[in-house]
């Protein structure tokens, strides 16, 4: 069975500082991993996805994530935070069990950006 | 191309009332899903469908029913609403299995449901 764990339910950074949101996964097969962002009172938007083509994945809005098999991690980073990055971020892994192909989500990390 | 749409956006119910949430997608996706989002819990799968006329239970199916009579629509029903069903409901869809883009799911804007 697949699962993801997001470390830290809240992360606060200053504008211009590095953003690091942590995600560790558990999977018995090569995983497909995703990061989604949810702005207040909105739906989920795909930031980036790992599908085994490259270990360093670049996404929208300057975010990127690196797949590290040895650490079973897929941490999300952005070199310089912007106020508009304040949102909740979800890491997810595709479920290989059965035929459903649904995503299994972490519990989310709320990012606050201080001026 | 509207993507995935959900109606209604907001709803308040009294305990015991029933309602249906509608999800529609115009991307010709085979797979459709209903999730619920609760604070600190992430998103959890309620029911899903891998094609027209097929549905199956997810992680938290109790108290919900679904139907997929048309490929583009996926309905979520609450027969007798309970306060524990207060949540934000998201519909999602994805391409057929075997497609390189299969892994990505596209989400609707959500329905905020409050059961009093």
Q: Could you explain the architecture of this structure?
A:
- The complex is a heterodimer of chains A (115) and B (116).
- Chain A is an all-beta fold.
- In chain A, 0% of the residues lie in helices and 54% in strands.
- Chain A has strands at residues 3-7, 10-14, 19-26, 33-38, 44-50, 56-58, 64-68, 73-78, 87-94, 103-105, 109-114.
- In chain A, strands 2, 4, 5, 9, 10 and 11 form a six-stranded mixed beta sheet that branches. In chain A, strands 1-3-8-7-6 form a five-stranded antiparallel beta sheet, with no helix packed on it.
- The termini of chain A are far apart.
- The mean pLDDT of chain A is 91.
- Chain B is mostly beta strands and 116 residues long.
- In chain B, the strands form two sheets. In chain B, strands 2, 4, 5, 6, 9, 10 and 11 form a seven-stranded mixed beta sheet that branches.
- The model of chain B has no long low-confidence stretch (mean pLDDT 91).
- Chains A and B meet through strand 5 of A and strand 5, strand 9 and strand 10 of B.
Write a short abstract of this structure.
The complex is a heterodimer of chains A (115) and B (116). Chain A has no helices and eleven strands.
Task: Sum up the structure in keywords.
heterodimer, A: 115 residues, mainly beta, six-stranded mixed sheet, five-stranded antiparallel sheet, 11 strands, 54% strand, B: 116 residues, seven-stranded mixed sheet, four-stranded antiparallel sheet, globular
């Amino acid at each position: 069975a697949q699962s993801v764990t997001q470390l830290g339910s809240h992360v606060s950074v200053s504008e211009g500082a590095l953003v690091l949101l942590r995600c560790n996964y558990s999977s018995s097969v090569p995983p497909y991993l995703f990061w989604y962002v949810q702005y207040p009172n909105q739906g989920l938007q795909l930031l980036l996805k790992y599908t085994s083509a490259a270990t360093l994945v670049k996404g929208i809005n300057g975010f990127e994530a690196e797949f590290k098999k040895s650490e079973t991690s897929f941490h999300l980073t952005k070199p310089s935070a912007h106020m508009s990055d304040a949102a909740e971020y979800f890491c997810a892994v595709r479920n290989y069990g059965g035929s459903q192909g649904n995503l299994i989500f972490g519990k989310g990390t709320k990012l606050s950006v201080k001026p | 191309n509207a993507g995935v749409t959900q109606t209604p956006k907001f709803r308040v119910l009294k305990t015991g009332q029933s309602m249906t949430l509608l999800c529609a997608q115009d991307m010709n996706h085979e797979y459709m899903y209903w999730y619920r989002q609760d604070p600190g819990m992430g998103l959890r799968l309620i029911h899903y469908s891998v094609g027209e006329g097929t549905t199956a239970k997810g992680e938290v199916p109790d108290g919900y029913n679904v139907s997929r009579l048309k490929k583009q629509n996926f309905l979520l029903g609450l027969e007798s609403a309970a306060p524990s069903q207060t949540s934000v409901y998201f519909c999602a869809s994805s391409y057929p299995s075997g497609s390189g883009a299969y892994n990505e799911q596209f989400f609707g804007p959500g329905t905020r449901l409050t059961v009093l």
